[in-house]
Each structure stands twice: as structure tokens, then as C-alpha cells.
Amino acid sequence: MSFLQHQMRLANCLSIERTWDTLRDGLTDIYETIPLPRDRYMQLYNLVYQYCTSNNLSLPVHSRSYLTGCERFGERLYKNLQDFLCTHLRNLAAEGLENRDELLLMFYQSSWNNFIFSSVVTHHIFLYMNRHWIRRVLEDNNDVFEVYSLAMVMWRETLLAELESRVTEAVIRLITKERDGEPINTLLVTCIKQSYIDMGVSSQRQKRSILDYYKRHLESELLCVTRNYYTVKSSEFLRENSVASYVNKALIQLSDEKGRVERYLHQTSMEPVIRVVKDVLIVQYLPTLYEEFQVYLNTDQEQNMAALFQLVEKTENGLERLQEIFEKHVLKTGLDSIEACADAASTESGVYVTALLRVYKKYKQFVLLSFSNHPFFVGALDRACQKFINRNAVTDASSNQTSKSAELIARYCDFLLKKSSKVSEEAELEDILADIMIVFQYLESKDVFQKFYSSMLAKRLVEHLSMSEDAEASMISKLKAACGALYTSKLQKMFQDMAVNNDLNIRFTTHLKDSSTSLDVDFHVDVLTHGSWPFQQMPLFALPGDVESCIERFKLFYSVLHSGRKLIWLYHKSRAEIVTTCFKRRYTMSSSMYQVCWSVCVCVCAEHSVCAFFCLSVCLSVCLSHGRDNVTFSHRLSRAQLCYSAT
User: Fold this and answer.
1) pLDDT at 523 > cutoff 60
2) What's the rounded mean pLDDT across residues 179-205?
3) In degrees, to the nearest 5, what angle opens at C-alpha 216 toward C-alphas 213 and 218?
4) DSSP class of residue 14?
5) pTM, two decimal places
6) 6 exposed, middle or buried (CB, 10 Å; 0-12, 13-18, 19+)?
7) In Å, what is the CA distance from 148 to each residue of 113, 128, 134, 218, 604?
8) Which of 1, 24, 273, 293 sits between 20 and 30 A of 15, alpha carbons compared?
9) For residues 445 and 509, is the Cβ–Cβ distance under 8 A?
10) CA-derived radius of gyration, the chain
11) Interatomic CA distance for residues 233 and 249, integer angstroms
12) How many angstroms separate the CA atoms of 255 and 281, rounded?
């Protein structure tokens, strides 16, 4: 190679140092936010490309290799960029040290926004180095960063190393000002938060959480200041105000803190910040709040109870003690309510059930409105009601303590479902029955209730005392929904028997007409299924002849209709209406069959000749068995006129 060719080659070689000087001038303009024309941007991008792809022969021979320019010069370019950023950020840090408080935050915000914009531009100018040299080095697990991440690391290790404590203190003071009710520029807090999060860049070897810097340098300091702030403020407020005012204030403070986190802190700070506020505002004052809760219960302060419940609900286990206080209070109120009317309630079922319902409804309203139907308080109300409904002053005074409550509730149902009930509207009756079912669900001796209710239902059906079939069916349906089909199977069978009896008596009447047979009395029979009705057979006695002939005629009819069945008559459950015709005025008397027989005997044995005419309406109960199955029947003699003559 000639000397001239050698000189030309040296002239064409790219000077490494001169290239970096040009790049440094461009980077200076970028980080000083001087507008960069498009052609200047492309020039800088090409310089990085040429720098990385150059095979500079002006280097010493021992420095040359067969590696590409990017691999040989990338490390030098990376080191030069790192030194430039370090110098630039040291100058910024020195300028920042001249400011304090909000002025420092404003300086930080402006510098940070300019820095991240400039770093994005620089990242794209050095894109070729990112794609080749940096990626290759990262594959070898070396601690290098892409250009933008490198800028974040240099900001953290250079500027924040000088300013971090001042910036953190200033931003916490700004948050404290807002807590005191002063308006602040929340964008400053947001900027600090985001910059601290971006400082979470770590190398492949370190692998720290991206939020590590934010939590160590901002969140932890904020939590400490928050605890101290609310400890002082809560103590001062409670000394000067009532507990009710404190509860409302604490709810507002919790809501405000949640809003602050949502506006300018990271979402992961929500749980620790709110936990600290709860510990200070609620947990340390729980004994005071529990005492105040008892006062609210004693004075029925529903709104204050609702506010206190909302506050204590925010703690982990605070509601457990609160629901214990509520349960004890409801139990005491229930026992006191029954004791106050014990004399009347022991004999008047309506007074007893009304007293129970009054207590339940009052505190059920509290559970719904003040406690938002929380499961803790629903359970507390249930346990308290179960205790005072089954054991109270009325049951304690009874010889049979376990069954007294069930008996009184069953008697109240009987009173409501009879024709003599003062409840005339079906809707009102339905509401009362629904209320009774509330009390029923707390009964421990539901089988005792069934025994009493079954006996009373049977009497209402046989003696036709029920207010309405719909009301009876509704009550049975409610019991079935509460206890299942097996619980009400006998009750439903009784109801079905009465419906079948109507058809049976129509067929009997038709049979008499078809056979041209007339009875001296109007005769009605109710056939009852044996085992479903709570009736027992009693000793039989001689009936009047006209009634006896009616029974024999029905036996014949029924034996043809159902062969193999045996009728067992229950005279003690039979009824008759006696109408007198021997006086100036007519009298109608409702009598048992015993009384009918006795009246007939008196007429027959009288010393004077008296013509007595009786108009009888008789109700007979009959029991029939077929094989091993027993079936109970009920018969009624309705309006029969007999004439008896005695001399």
C-alpha cells in the first residue's frame, strides 16, 4: 500500500472522540429541552449507528479484533452516556438543594417531567445500541440497562441520593396540610409517587420489586406520620366532643384517607394506610365505643347505633363483642317484657304472643336498619329470641315449663282461626299468622305445639267453628314450609277428610231418596281417618230411638259403599241442636249427645202429661276400622224434629 493510499484511509476513518463530542452536544441540547430539528435528530441517530458499526483502524494493533464495531465500541459509548447523565443530574441536584417544601416539589416536578421526556428521546437515538450491544450483554447476565432504564437508575443514584429525604418530607407535609383542610396541588404528590415507582428499576441480579423504592422511601414514612397525626388529633377531638360526634368524624376521616390514596398514591398503599387509620381511630377506642353502644341500646338511638356499627365493622374482630352486647340486651328486654305482663299472659295467649312479637319486631328493625342485616346481629337476635321465648316468667311459673310457651302460641292460633275471632279481614289475619310463625320458628318444643294445635284444629273442624277454610289451609301451609310435609301430614289429612265428607253426605242423601226412605231427623255424618285425628273412643250409651235408626241406616249404606270396614262411633264428640216447641217462645239449645239423651229421659219420666217437641241437630263422631287400618268418621244429625209424649 502506497503512502498516499494510507493517508486517504486515515482521513476516512471515523474519529471516536470527535463522534462522542458531537453526540454530547446533542444530548446537552436534549436535556436542556432545546427544540431538536428533525435533521439534527437523524444526525445523532446516524452517529450512534456509525459509532457502533465502525472498524476503526486508527486503534493500536493489539486493540483490533475480528469483532464487529458494536461489540468493540458499545461499552465505551455506554460509559460515556452514563458519565454524561451523572454530570447533568449532579447539576440538577445542586440546584434543587436551594429550594425547600413546596418550592422544592415544584422544582422536582418540572425537572422530572423534562428528564423523562429527554430520556425517551435519548432512548430512541440510542436504539441501535439497545438492540445489539445491550441485548447481547444482558444475555450474559451482566448488570447493564437499556438507555431509558439507565436514565432512571442514574436519577435514583445521583439526584435522589441528594434530595430524597427533603423531597419525601416535603410531600408528606403537603399531605398533612390537606388533612388539616387546606387546599393543595395534588399533581405534585402524584409526580413524586410516579417518580418513586419508576425508581424501582433493578438489574437481572438484584430483581427487586418495582414498588420497592416507593414503599421504602415514601409509603413507610407516610404510615409513620399518619399514625402520629391521627393519634394526636383523635385524642384532642374526643376530649372536646361527644362519642357520637367522634364516630361521625372518624367515618369521614376514613373516607377522606381512602380518597387520598385513590387520587395520588399507589393502589397497593390502600390497605396499609387504612389499616393504620383504623388502628388509631377505632381499635384503641373500642372499649369506649362498646360502652356507648350499650347507652344507644338503652335509649333506642337508632341513627347513632348505625354510625357506630359502620365504624366498628371496619375492624377485624370488633363486631364480635358488639353482637354479644346486643344479644344480652335483647334477652334482658324480652325477659323483662314477659315478666311485666306475666299474670295476664299466663292465661291470655294473645297477651303472651303480642309481648313476644313486640320485642322481636323492635330489634328486628334495628338489625335491618342500624346493622344492615349483618349475619352477626341476625344470629344474635335469633339466639336471644330463642332463649326468652322458651324460658321466661310465664314458663317458669307453669308446672310444665317446657311446653307452656308452645301451648300458649297454639291457643292463640285457635283463638284467631275461630269464628268468634275479632279479626274480620283476611289480609289482617294473614299478617297475624305470619307473625305467629316468626315466634313458632324459635320454639324448641315444636312437637308439643303440634299436639296442641292438632287437638284444637280437630275441634274446630268437627264442631264447624273455623273462621274460613282458606285461613286454616294457609296456616297448615306455613307450618309445612317451616317444618316439612311429615310435620303437617296429619293436619292435612284432617282437612282432606272434611272435604271428602261433604261428598259422602250428598251420596247418602241421594241414596235415601232413591230408596224412598225418609229419616225423622236431618242426619249428617263426618268420617274421620283413624290415627290422624286426636280422638279416643269412649264408652257407648243408648241413643234415642229415632237417632239410633238413622245410625243403623247409615251403617247399612256405608257397608255397601266400603265393605269390610267397621264403624266406631264417637258419641262424646257429637253435637245436637234442640229447639223447644212447648213454650210461648222458641229456644234453641246446642247440646252434646249426653245432654240430648238426658233431655229425652226427663220428658219420658215426667209426672205431668207434657207434649214436648224437639228439633234436633246432632253431630256424631264415628270410628271405622278395616283390617289393620283404622279410619275415624264424624257424623252430624242436623235439624231433626221428634215428638215425645209422657203421661
Assistant:
1) yes
2) 88
3) 90
4) P
5) 0.77
6) exposed
7) 14, 13, 12, 23, 125
8) 1
9) no
10) 49
11) 11
12) 12
Nearest in space to 201 (alpha carbons), one of 123, 274, 106: 123
d(CA 247, CA 225): 22
Q: How far apart, in whole angstroms, are the C-alpha atoms of residue 415 and residue 429?
A: 11
Low-confidence winner among 201-210, 394-403, 405-414, 519-528 (lowest mean pLDDT): 201-210
Residues 6+ apart with CB under 8 A from 157: none
Cell 245432654, located at residue: 595
Q: From CA 208, how far away is CA 143, in angstroms rounded? A: 14
CB 575 within 8 A of CB 590: yes
Look over the chain and give the mean of its residue pLDDT values, rounded to a whole number. Answer: 82
What is the Cα–Cα distance from 338 to 44, expressed in whole angstroms?
94
> Measured in whole angstroms, how far is the alpha carbon of residue 48 from the centre of its chain?
65
User: Cell numbers at residue 624, please?
Assistant: 271405622
CA 81 to chain centre: 61
CB 577 within 8 A of CB 639: yes
The confidence band for 522, taking pLDDT boundaries of 50, 70 and 90, is: confident
Here the cell at position 12 is 476516512
CA–CA gap between residue 86 and residue 157 (Å, rounded): 9
The three three-digit cell numbers of residue 342, written as one number:
306475666
Q: What is the pLDDT of residues 429-460, one digit of tens each?
A: 899 999 999 999 999 999 999 999 999 998 89
Rounded to whole angstroms, the Cα distance separating 33 from 459 reads 101
Local structure of 166: helix, strand or coil: helix
| pLDDT tops 70 at residue 259 | yes
Return the C-alpha cell found at 56. 476503526
How far apart, in whole angstroms, are the C-alpha atoms of residue 45 and residue 32? 18
3-class secondary structure per residue, 222-252: HHHHHHHHHHHHHHHHHHHCCHHHHHHHHHH
Adjacent-strand bridge partners of 568 = 623
Model confidence at 568, pLDDT cuts 50, 70, 90, reads confident
Q: Report the half-sphere exposure of 332 (CA within 13 A, side-chain side).
A: 9
Which of 367, 370, 356, 446 lies closest to 403, judged by CA? 446
- Whole-number Å distance between alpha carbons of 538 and 632: 13
**Do the beta carbons of residue 299 and residue 333 sit within 8 Å?**
no
What per-residue confidence (pLDDT) applies to 596?
A: 73
Q: Write the DSSP string, 601-615.
A: HHHHT-SS-EEEEEE
Question: Residue 323 in contact with residue 309, Cβ under 8 Å?
Answer: no
More confident residue, 494 or 633: 494
Q: Give residue for cell 436542556.
A: 32
The Cα 251–Cα 449 span in angstroms is: 48
Grid coordinates representing 402 are 317446657
Residue 568 main-chain phi, psi, to 5 deg? -115, 115
Cα–Cα distance, 74 to 152 (Å, whole number): 20
Question: Is the distance from CB of 639 to CB of 630 less than 8 angstroms?
Answer: no
What the block records as the C-alpha cell of 639 is 235439624
Strands 610-626 and 566-570, sheet pairing? antiparallel
Residue matched to cell numbers 269464628 = 419
Residue 56 three-state SS: coil
HSE, side-chain direction, 13 A CA sphere, residue 207: 4
Q: Give the phi and the psi of residue 576 in degrees, each rounded to 5.
A: -145, 150
Cβ contact 319:376 at 8 Å? yes
CB 36 within 8 A of CB 113: no
Q: What is the Cα–Cα distance from 24 to 51, expressed in whole angstroms?
A: 13
